[in-house]
Amino acid sequence: MLVIDAASPAPVPATQNGGSGSMLGSFGASTPDGLAWGASNAVAHRVVDAVVGPRTIHVQHEEASAPAPSSHAIDSDACDSRNQAFLDVCYTLPCYLS
Predict the structure, then answer these.
(1) How far apart are CA 29 and CA 23, in angstroms?
(2) Hey, which end of the chain has fewer CB within 10 Å, N or C?
(3) Which InterPro entries match (predicted)?
(4) What Å distances lie between residue 85 and 44, 75, 77, 88, CA to CA?
(5) Are 55 and 49 in contact, with CB atoms under 8 Å apart?
(6) Measured in whole angstroms, how far is the alpha carbon of residue 57 from the centre of its chain?
(7) Which are the contacts of 49, defined by CB distance < 8 A and separation ≥ 6?
(8) 66: pLDDT strictly greater than 80
(9) Which residues contact 25 (CB under 8 A, 6 or more apart)?
(10) For residue range 15-45, what is the model confidence (pLDDT) as tens digits?
């Protein structure tokens, strides 16, 4: 039978140590953790490469064909003048900065 004494005080809650630590302290604590995670990740990749084989990337180039004719009837001169003005500014800007 469980007997509860109503006169006994409630237990004191545990205090947290370092709850108001500095940012540098938390960075210093997380840096070794990140380094350990990164190192173990690299080791795991090496193990997988040893078991499965190295990763290879095969790039397949296709010959560029002529672009399909556009169905839009847009005058390209409208954009060409703005493009040329932008390029003029880009080419002359370094002269003003130096």
Answers:
(1) 10
(2) N
(3) CHCHD2/10-like
(4) 53, 17, 12, 5
(5) yes
(6) 22
(7) 55
(8) no
(9) 18
(10) 666 555 666 777 888 888 999 999 999 999 9
Cα-to-chain-centroid distance, residue 29: 21
Cα(55)–Cα(11) distance, integer angstroms: 59
Q: Which two tokens stand for residue 4?
A: 């509860």
Q: Any idea which residue has 């390029």 for tokens? A: 87
80, pLDDT greater than 90? no
Specify the length of the chain in residues. 98
Structure tokens given for 58: 């095969």
Residue 78 is encoded by which pair of tokens? 């409208």
